[in-house]
């Protein structure tokens, strides 16, 4: 009887021990699982962090906003009222005072390529642009009386813009050439000036391969100030101002 009860106690202790062992192992297993899970989370987080760092440095956009004053977009889709910028005259041509020094330095640099480079036009008010546009339309009709008003305007819009649609009203655009009357000049000279323009914050605004994006034919004399950083980025990535602003907006800038 005593022996049986002793065995019974030993068995009970064994059962309890086995139970405790199982419980211990179960808890251990759970802890390992939790540890694995959290380390997975950490590695996911670290992958995410590094990938966003990579994409930021990959897109390498200049530290500008599409709403910055240098990037104001004026075209037939973005009609703008009189902007009345404060202007400074460079050799008799008014430009936005904030870019006067850039214009002066760009003009000086262009003259090292061709001494005959000069400023044809800078800031033009919306009112003056309207007069100019109407004059061009009348000229087209005089040259070809078969043209309707609409047809004549279509022709004019390849080289001049209606009131409110010309970026000359911003004071940030200049026409610069070595020949008169907005005629095309020596392509080699244009190429060299176009290459140094970004150093002064300018881009040749209406490139031959960007007619679709800008809606304007090739102009080898019309430069637009956008700031040095943006000008270099636009040139490097072959973007028109319309395309560049779309890229900035897409990335929330
Ligand atoms: Zn122009």
UniProtKB/TrEMBL annotation:
<keyword id="KW-0121">Carboxypeptidase</keyword>
<dbReference type="GO" id="GO:0006508">
    <property type="term" value="P:proteolysis"/>
</dbReference>
<keyword id="KW-0472">Membrane</keyword>
<dbReference type="InterPro" id="IPR058193">
    <property type="entry name" value="VanY/YodJ_core_dom"/>
</dbReference>
<keyword id="KW-0378">Hydrolase</keyword>
<keyword id="KW-0812">Transmembrane</keyword>
<dbReference type="Pfam" id="PF02557">
    <property type="entry name" value="VanY"/>
</dbReference>
<feature type="domain" description="D-alanyl-D-alanine carboxypeptidase-like core">
    <location>
        <begin position="95"/>
        <end position="227"/>
    </location>
</feature>
<keyword id="KW-1133">Transmembrane helix</keyword>
<feature type="transmembrane region" description="Helical">
    <location>
        <begin position="6"/>
        <end position="27"/>
    </location>
</feature>
<dbReference type="GO" id="GO:0004180">
    <property type="term" value="F:carboxypeptidase activity"/>
</dbReference>
<dbReference type="InterPro" id="IPR052179">
    <property type="entry name" value="DD-CPase-like"/>
</dbReference>
<protein>
    <submittedName>
        <fullName>D-alanyl-D-alanine carboxypeptidase</fullName>
    </submittedName>
</protein>
<keyword id="KW-0645">Protease</keyword>
<dbReference type="InterPro" id="IPR009045">
    <property type="entry name" value="Zn_M74/Hedgehog-like"/>
</dbReference>
<dbReference type="InterPro" id="IPR003709">
    <property type="entry name" value="VanY-like_core_dom"/>
</dbReference>
């Amino acid at each position: 009887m005593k022996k049986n009860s002793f065995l019974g106690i030993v068995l009970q202790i064994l059962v309890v021990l086995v139970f405790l062992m199982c419980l211990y192992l179960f808890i251990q297993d759970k802890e390992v699982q939790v540890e694995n899970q959290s380390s997975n989370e950490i590695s996911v987080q670290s992958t995410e962090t590094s990938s966003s760092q990579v994409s930021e440095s990959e897109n390498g956009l200049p530290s500008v906003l599409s709403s910055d004053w240098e990037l104001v977009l004026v075209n037939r889709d973005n009609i703008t009222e009189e902007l009345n910028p404060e202007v400074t005259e460079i050799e008799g041509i008014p430009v936005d005072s904030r870019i006067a020094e850039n214009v002066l330095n760009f003009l000086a640099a262009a003259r090292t390529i061709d001494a005959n480079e000069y400023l044809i036009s800078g800031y033009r008010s919306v009112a003056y642009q309207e007069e100019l546009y109407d004059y061009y339309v009348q000229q087209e009709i005089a040259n070809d009386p078969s043209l309707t008003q609409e047809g004549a305007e279509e022709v004019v819009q390849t080289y001049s813009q209606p009131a409110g649609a010309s970026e000359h009203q911003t004071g940030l655009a200049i026409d610069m050439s070595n020949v008169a009357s907005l005629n095309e000049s020596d392509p080699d000279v244009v190429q060299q000036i176009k290459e140094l323009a970004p150093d002064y914050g300018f881009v040749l605004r209406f490139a031959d391969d960007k007619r679709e994006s800008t809606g304007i034919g090739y102009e080898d004399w019309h430069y637009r100030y956008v700031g040095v950083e943006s000008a270099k980025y636009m040139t490097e990535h072959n973007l028109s101002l319309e395309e560049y602003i779309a890229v900035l907006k897409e990335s929330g800038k």
